[in-house]
Design goal:
Blueprint: H1 4-12, H2 16-35, H3 44-65, H4 70-83, H5 87-112
């Protein structure tokens, strides 16, 4: 399992188009993590926070397309997560998204051979 510092370094080393793919995968994993939760186990602030976090992720995908610095985007996403006490959830979805993206890339490279 990678540390968050390792995931951040990996993310910052990606070109913006790959950062966009990664953040889209984060959004997908975030949806899955909350889909499996029972509604009674989460308070309304958490549900609202997930919605806001998705909003932040989609905005980040957009601004990366405009060439905005990836570190600024990273920091903004974690700022949004902290507001709703979702940093732990975001951290685990980042790790899952990194693993999934790495696997898909490896499969694509193997298929290209």
């Amino acid at each position: 399992m990678a540390t968050m510092a390792e995931v951040k370094d990996w993310y910052l080393g990606l070109p913006n188009s790959q950062k966009q793919r990664f953040l889209a995968a984060v959004g997908l994993n975030l949806t899955i993590s909350f889909r499996d939760s029972k509604p009674g186990n989460l308070n309304p602030k958490s549900w609202f926070g997930v919605n806001e976090l998705h909003h932040t992720l989609y905005g980040a995908i957009d601004v990366l397309g405009a060439g905005i610095d990836g570190k600024t985007v990273w920091d903004h996403i974690f700022f949004s997560a902290r507001q709703y006490n979702l940093t732990g959830t975001l951290t685990s979805t980042f790790e899952s998204a990194k693993d999934a993206m790495t696997l898909v890339d490896a499969m694509g490279q193997k298929a290209a051979k």
